[in-house]
Amino acid sequence: MLVVEDDEELRSALARHLGEEGFVVETAGDGEEALELLLRRGRGTGPGDIEAVVLDLLLPGLNGREVCYRLRTAGCWVPVLMATAFGELEDRIQGFADGADDYLVKPFSLAELVARLRVMLRRATGREDGDLEVGDLRLDLAGHQAWRGASPVELTRRELAVLHALMRRPGIVLSRQALQAAVWGREAPVSGNVLEQYIARLRRKLDVPFGRADIETLPRVGYRIRSPR
Fold it and tell me: Whole-angstrom Cα distance, residue 225 to residue 223?
């Protein structure tokens, strides 16, 4: 667990409390330090990896949103909980658009922070192997197969990759840039409507034939797959 907070007193208090709750905690006091650590160790899949981040928004150097955005564009999907004093709806929407998994407004209860972190980690568990379920939509990335309910749906390799990126974060808005980086990496298309074409293909195959509208576009924000209630 990495706690990124420029207030030394608060950073120490958070680290101490999370440690008492059983988390292995490291800290960083600015955005550059946090980004460097996470790009090296933010995969959460091996010894010494960082499994989640509590990320302040107002940081020296790179702010929290920029740190989160750069992580996502680099293809690093370590779970991020933004903890900030900015609590307006627009602030939360922008945080999710930049790739945050959760958003907690200061001042917050330490008990709520712990509860949210544990839920966030449960969501992330087991998602790296490509075998995912969101409602009645299932994906086996290794087997190159998707299903809507009991019905198999044939998808191309790139369509599967776009779907996988969306299903790894159900209910969370992915910005266009973050989604492109997750699917294409450094070869991400920088112009045109390539991503929109793939989103449209997925809707034609996974939503329209089944009377569904689970793949959503949020204008000027990004895309998400609806999380089952």
Answer: 7
Q: What is the CATH number assigned to the segment(s) 131-225?
A: 1.10.10.10
Bond prior to 107 in cis (omega within 30° of 0): yes
- The strand pairing partners of 82, in sequence order, are 55, 103
Task: Name the packing angle between helices 64-73 and 176-184 (round to 10°).
Answer: 30
Going by C-alpha positions, the residue among 212, 207, 205, 182 that lies closest to residue 195 is 182
Closest CA to 148 of 167, 165, 129: 167
User: Is the CATH number 3.10.20.810 carried by domain 2-124?
Assistant: no
For residue 26, the Cα-to-chain-centroid distance in whole angstroms is 20
Region of residue 91 (left: phi > 0; alpha: psi -120 to 50; beta: else): alpha
Specify the 3-state DSSP secondary structure of 41. Answer: helix
- Domain layout of the chain by residue ranges: 2-124, 131-225
Predicted confidence pLDDT, tens digits, the chain (229 residues): 899 999 999 999 999 999 888 888 999 999 999 999 998 887 655 557 888 999 999 898 889 988 988 888 777 888 999 988 887 877 787 788 778 888 898 888 999 999 989 888 877 664 444 578 899 999 987 678 899 999 999 998 889 888 988 888 788 888 887 777 777 765 555 555 888 999 999 999 999 999 999 999 998 888 999 887 6
131-225: same fold as 2-124? no
What tokens were used for 214? Answer: 């689970």
CB contact at 8 A, 170 and 226: yes
State if pTM tops 0.85.
no
